[in-house]
Structures are given as structure tokens and as C-alpha cells.
Design a protein that fits this description.
The structure is a single chain. The chain is an alpha/beta fold and 188 residues long. It has a single domain, classed as Leucine-rich repeat, LRR (right-handed beta-alpha superhelix) (Alpha-Beta Horseshoe), CATH 3.80.10.10. The chain has seven helices and six strands; from the N terminus they run ααααβββαβαβαβ. The chain has a six-stranded mixed β-sheet, with helices on one face. Strand 5, helix 7 and strand 6 form a beta-alpha-beta unit. Helix 3 packs across helix 4. The longest helix is centred in the N-terminal third of the chain and has 11 residues. The protein is globular. The N and C termini lie far apart (63 Å). The relative contact order is 0.11. InterPro entries: LRR_dom_sf. This is ATP synthase, H+ transporting, mitochondrial F0 complex, subunit s (Factor B).
């Protein structure tokens, strides 16, 4: 009976297009400017990447760091040279972490389901150092996103594969090859 009386107070259900995990991922991808100032861009970027499931390789190290809890002291200034973001939950909200990281030569984005076109635009801050880029099985990437890669003028190798929403492969490869004449491009 009480429920019958209160039924008119109910709000209509509005379908939510974002899941709770999506909103949590946004929080985990946000840049903390104070933290960046405190520990430097590479450490801050490494924290972001590791927090979201990616792995980083430091300069003069042979192995990837895979555990956030094994980060070296924040008083030690190290430089990231490689990023393996396989199955990481990184989003474009976090790509400002790359600002100031001047030694990153290689990035792998594999099965990054939250990676969207806007994120690829953010890679332009790595144009002076990035030599190798792999984007595979990232389902939200389309031609407009790949077009942003033309800003990576030092890129030597670009691997693209299993991007189901890229419909005009030859056209985008031609566009990228024109913008990146010294880059070997493979699209499987």
C-alpha cells in the first residue's frame, strides 16, 4: 500500500550509457598536476600507466616494470623508454601524462578497449622521441584517429591490425605513408 502511494514519486529510469567501471577508469586516468610537479613527468606517467594495467621499461633497464608497488623511490629520476599497454584501461583523459616524457621510443596498444581516437591525437607530444607504435585490436579506433599519427614525424615503424571500424585501409595507409615518408607501415 505504501509502495502504491509512493509510486508517483518515482523518477523514470534513464538508461545509463556508461558503466560504473567506465567512470572509475576516468578517475584513474586523470592527471594530478601537483603530483607531476612533485615527482616529474616520467614518474607521474609511469604511475598512471601501471595503475591502469600497462607496463613500463626504464632507460638502462632490460625488463618491464609490471607492478605499481615495485616503483623505485620517487627521489630517483628515471626516464620511460617503452610502454606495453596490452589490455590496459588507459583513456584519452590520461594522455597528458605523456607531456614532458622525452625518451619514450616504443609504445604498444593491444586490446585497449577504452582507447579512442582522441587519445591518438595526444601522442603528438611524443613526436620527437617515438620511433615504434603498434595499435592492434583497439576496437574504438577509426580513420580520423589514425590520421592524428601523421604528427609523429620521427616514427620509423607503425603496426596496425584488427581495427574493425577502419573501413578504408588502403586510403588511410596512403595518407599515413604520405605524412610519414620514413616510416614502415604494416596494416594486417
Amino acid at each position: 500500500m505504501l509502495l502504491t502511494r509512493l509510486s508517483h514519486l518515482q523518477r523514470p529510469l534513464i538508461p545509463h550509457t556508461r558503466t560504473l567501471f567506465h567512470w572509475l577508469n576516468i578517475v584513474f586516468n586523470r592527471v594530478d598536476d601537483e603530483r607531476r610537479k612533485q615527482v616529474g613527468p616520467d614518474r607521474s606517467c609511469a604511475e598512471w600507466l601501471l595503475r591502469n594495467g600497462a607496463h613500463v621499461k626504464w632507460e638502462h633497464c632490460n625488463e618491464f616494470l609490471t607492478d605499481y608497488n615495485k616503483l623505485p623511490s620517487d627521489r630517483i629520476r628515471l626516464h620511460i623508454v617503452e610502454v606495453n599497454a596490452s589490455e590496459a584501461s588507459i583513456m584519452h583523459y590520461g594522455f597528458d601524462h605523456f607531456v614532458g616524457c622525452e625518451h619514450i621510443r616504443k609504445i604498444i596498444f593491444h586490446k585497449c578497449y577504452y582507447l579512442e581516437n582522441e587519445a591518438l591525437k595526444g601522442l603528438s607530444v611524443l613526436k620527437n622521441s617515438l620511433l615504434y607504435l603498434q595499435i592492434t585490436e583497439c576496437l574504438n579506433i577509426t580513420e580520423p584517429g589514425l590520421s592524428h599519427l601523421n604528427a609523429l614525424n620521427n616514427l620509423k615503424e607503425l603496426i596496425l591490425a584488427d581495427l574493425p571500424y577502419v573501413k578504408e585501409r588502403e586510403k588511410i595507409v596512403d595518407k599515413l605513408q604520405h605524412g610519414l615518408p620514413h616510416c614502415t607501415i604494416q596494416f594486417h
